[in-house]
Amino acid sequence: MAGSGSAPDRDPVTDLRRIAFLLERSLASSYRVKAFRGAASALLPLEPGEIRQAAADGKLTALKGVGEKSAAVIEQSVAGQVPDYLADLEQQAQEPLATGGEKLRAALRGDCHSHSDWSDGGSPPAEMAWTAKELGHEYLVLTDHSPRLKVANGLSAERLRRQLDVIEVINQQLAPFRVLTGIEVDILDDGSLDQDPELLARLDLVVASVHSKLAMPGKAMTRRMLAAIENPHTDVLGHCTGRMVRPREGRNPKGRAESEFDAAAVFAACQEHSTAVEINSRPERLDPPRRLLRQAVEAGCMFSIDTDAHAPGQLDWQIIGTSRAEECGVTADRVINTLGAEELLEWTRS
């Protein structure tokens, strides 16, 4: 029963992080998530005895970042109880995110598309990396946005270089787990990529995506996408139609239609230039749609099954992508993130 289980050495930070993870996994509002991640951060500098004393004195909410709901979680956790709120979320999480796809999901060794708070994600790179490791990944490619996407706080060349130094430190701490360097680079109107070519050449993996003028005429969009696919720095074509099948928090209240382009030409170019087609697992994207996914399979394309995670809990969404992939005939040998890190790097460098 919630709140009555015996767990004498429960860690309230772990319980708060788990609540945040489950909320992110279910696409809960960022406001709710921040309440628990903020409380976990507030407890980190404190010794266990200090946390217990604050709970006993009823002074948890005096800590900056701890509200009434998170305080209730902490109180139950330090008492050795499973917090009621956590128990409820764990019960809800028993419902699978998707049916099927388990075999392909088990074959995945990493995630090639993720975001941190350096652009429009909600958590630092280290938190994303820790969560990926906890989920059993061998690596995570950090692909924050490029400079043109100002609404997403896209990274200038200078900021991206600073991020590379941060990733180096994380890799020293988490080895043998690895954060691979990357970017989700905007495909500009003429098909060029929104970052210095010299810097793109330094990165482990480049996801190229269209984020602007998504309703441009089909012929122009096709030329734009083909130019990006043919660019030697492009490794993965991200969420190719740009569609939104349901609203995303704070954006696209009515969803968004697919971009128009010559799919046969685009997938033929992906096959010719060894550019993987992304199977985007975000529940509001599910991109490409099944008919195009089957067309890409028939064209002989390689694929990357990614979460496009903007929060740690969203890294658990790959089963959504593998379910659709298996349904459409994608096999493990055609998915680049079934490769180990060194094999993946060999593939991107070739």
Question: What this model shows, in words?
Answer:
This protein has a seven-stranded parallel β-sheet with strand order 1-2-3-4-5-6-7. The chain has 14 helices and seven strands. It starts with 11 loop residues before the first helix and ends with a helix. About 40% of the residues lie in helices and about 10% in strands. It has two domains: about 10-90, DNA polymerase, domain 1 (Orthogonal Bundle), CATH 1.10.150; about 100-350, Metal-dependent hydrolases (TIM Barrel), CATH 3.20.20. Helix 1 packs antiparallel against helix 2 and helix 3 packs across helix 4. Mean pLDDT is about 95; it is low at about 1-5. The longest helix has 18 residues, at about 155-175. It has helices at about 10-25, 30-45, 50-55, 70-80, 85-90, 100-105, 125-135, 155-175, 195-200, 220-230, 265-270, 290-300, 320-325, 340-350; strands at about 110, 140, 180-185, 205-210, 235, 275-280, 305. About 45% of the residues are buried. The protein is globular and about 65 Å long. The chain is of the alpha/beta class.
Task: Briefly characterize the structure.
This protein has 350 residues and is of the alpha/beta class. The protein has helices at residues 12-25, 30-43, 48-56, 68-78, 84-92, 102-107, 125-134, 157-174, 197-202, 218-230, 263-272, 290-298, 318-327, 341-349; strands spanning 110-111, 139-142, 178-186, 205-209, 236-237, 276-280, 303-306.
